[in-house]
């Protein structure tokens, strides 16, 4: 079985100096390899094909046969790297906490420990009969978060 670390290293060498980066790599026992990449802007299909050829060239198919698929981390896929989070600062994300709470929020900040988000929720406000919509800003550590996805509103 081909080591995913070697695949990632080969891909990172090829992507060096571009705005693209490796998000993840999986390999099945049958050597079916899937390499996910993303970019600070966008990923063209030509870039995936070029990266696939470059990575394949570094491995000997006669020594060990494999199937390599290079794909862009698609819309709606989980964010896996800090760079993906930073790319979406100012945008809307869907956050699912380990506790099962799911929320739509604006991503305000991201660092090595976690994220800061803001969202609106109804709260009792002194002097008002009904609950009012209030913007809440909260910080969550990555170990509190089950998944985060980019949210696109098609309205």
Low-pLDDT runs of 5+ residues are none
Q: Quickly give the CATH architecture of the largest domain.
A: 2-Layer Sandwich
| Mean pLDDT, all residues | 92
Individual helix count: 3
Strand coverage percent? 35-45%
Number of domains: 2
What order do the SSEs take from the amino end to the carboxyl end, as H and E? HEEHEHEEEEE
Instruction: Give the class from helix and strand content and strand pairing.
Output: alpha+beta
According to CATH, what is the class of the largest domain? Alpha Beta
CATH overall fold name of the largest domain:
GMP Synthetase, Chain A, domain 3
- Largest sheet composition: 5 strands, antiparallel
The CATH H-level superfamily of the largest domain is K homology (KH) domain
- What is the general shape? elongated
Helix content: 10-25%
Identify the quaternary structure here.
single chain
First-residue to last-residue Cα separation: 46 Å
Strands side by side in the biggest sheet: 7-6-5-4-8
Please compute the radius of gyration using only Cα atoms: 20 Å
Domain Ribosome maturation factor RimP N-terminal: 31-75
Subcellular location: Cytoplasm
Pfam families: RimP_N
Protein name: Ribosome maturation factor RimP
Report what the structure shows.
The protein is of the alpha+beta class and about 160 residues long. It has two domains: about 1-75, 2-Layer Sandwich (GMP Synthetase, Chain A, domain 3); about 75-150, Roll (SH3 type barrels), CATH 2.30.30.100. Helix content is about 20%, strand content about 40%. It has helices at about 5-15, 45-55, 80-85, and strands spanning about 20-25, 30-40, 65-70, 90-95, 100-110, 115-125, 130-140, 145-150. The protein has a five-stranded antiparallel sheet with strand order 7-6-5-4-8. A three-stranded mixed sheet has the order 1-2-3, with helices on one face. It is elongated, with a radius of gyration of 20 Å. The N and C termini lie far apart (about 45 Å). The mean pLDDT is about 90. InterPro entries: Ribosome_maturation_RimP (IPR003728), RimP_N (IPR028989), RimP_N_sf (IPR035956). Belongs to the RimP family. One of its GO terms (cellular component) is cytosol. Required for maturation of 30S ribosomal subunits. It is found in: Cytoplasm.
